[in-house]
Amino acid sequence: MEDKKEMTTPVISAATDTEQSISKCTVNSIVNQSTDFKGYMNIFESVKEKVSARQAAEQYGIRVNRNGMACCPFHNDRHPSMKIDKGYYCFACGEKGDVIHFVEKLFGIRPYEAARKLAEDFEVTIEKKQKSSKRVSHKRVERNPYQTAKTFHDWVQYCIRVLSDYLRYLEELKKKYAPVKMDEEWNTEFCNASSQIPIIDNYLEILLNGSLEEQIRFMSEKGREVKNIAGRLDEYRRRDAQADGRSSVCDGISA
Predict the structure, then answer these.
(1) Which of 94, 129, 164 finishes a domain?
(2) Which residue has the higher pLDDT, 140 or 75?
(3) Are 128 and 196 in contact (CB under 8 A)?
(4) Structural domain boundaries, residue 82
(5) 114 and 28 in one domain?
(6) Nearest to residue 161, comparing CAs of 90, 233, 98, 254?
(7) Based on the domain organization, do 150 and 241 belong to the same domain?
(8) Contact 108, 99 (CB under 8 A)
(9) What is the C-alpha separation between 56 and 137, in angstroms, rounded?
(10) Percentage, residues of the chain above pLDDT 70
């Protein structure tokens, strides 16, 4: 049997202060820290429902061709490598996200400021949700609604980066261990990667295009799983760096 060298896996850079703070609390606690959370987050949901990343790109001077491809504004891109539709994905640098994250990165502003800019530029009407009249019997740690919304949005973007990195790893793994002959026995790594790819694709679809309710549910049910994936990828990085006898080039999730 041919001895196959272990593949180089994507690398996770050191967690930012935001990601470290996010990892110390559950999504349920984030949501419950402010009674105004859903009402405040409504601007994010409304903007994402009514404005696509493509509309925003064209509004802010980025030329998008008929196939939905454009030169990526986040790296020195000479040929269109970014696919822009409801969300966006650059096949060259791996940058990926929703319309709010696109504007946030394009202008170097905070998530809420990006949502407000989009709402103003596209004249999106934000409907205010009625506050619940139910009394809360237990004490809560109150936070500024902006802080709560920003923390949740940052956590969503962090999960998108982790899952995008993991998806690239799985695709590389599937390609490496794909059977050469039709009658060849399928490698376990190939089978595992093939079964995981559609699951991760579905996770990303929820985070990129799902409603606020769907994102909250995902974070509550799958947040720990995403953190475990990040830990495994980091472990692969250390293993490969040790095997190579040198530090791997940081080409995975960036802060």
Answers:
(1) 129
(2) 75
(3) no
(4) 42-129
(5) no
(6) 254
(7) yes
(8) no
(9) 43
(10) 69
